[in-house]
Amino acid sequence: MAKVKVTQVRSTIKRPKDQKATIVALGLGKINKSVEVENTPQIAGMVRKVSHLVKVEEA
């Protein structure tokens, strides 16, 4: 599978609990933190849910 680099670019303050939980599940939590994850359908759905808080690049 291809890997993607997900970087948090916006804060989770004043966001719904489900979006905060999704950020934590992706391994993020602080602005400018990045993680490399496999591009599975589950991860793609999580990224889509918080797309306004993260930046995604091909790794």
UniProtKB/TrEMBL annotation:
It comes from the Bacteria. CDD domains: Ribosomal_L30. Pfam families: Ribosomal_L30. Keywords: Ribonucleoprotein, Ribosomal protein. InterPro entries: Ribo_uL30_ferredoxin-like_sf, Ribosomal_uL30_bac-type, Ribosomal_uL30_ferredoxin-like. One of its GO terms (cellular component) is ribosome. Residues 4-54 form the Large ribosomal subunit protein uL30-like ferredoxin-like fold domain. PANTHER family: LARGE RIBOSOMAL SUBUNIT PROTEIN UL30M, MITOCHONDRIAL RIBOSOMAL PROTEIN L30. Belongs to the universal ribosomal protein uL30 family. Part of the 50S ribosomal subunit. This is Large ribosomal subunit protein uL30. It comes from Belliella filtrata.
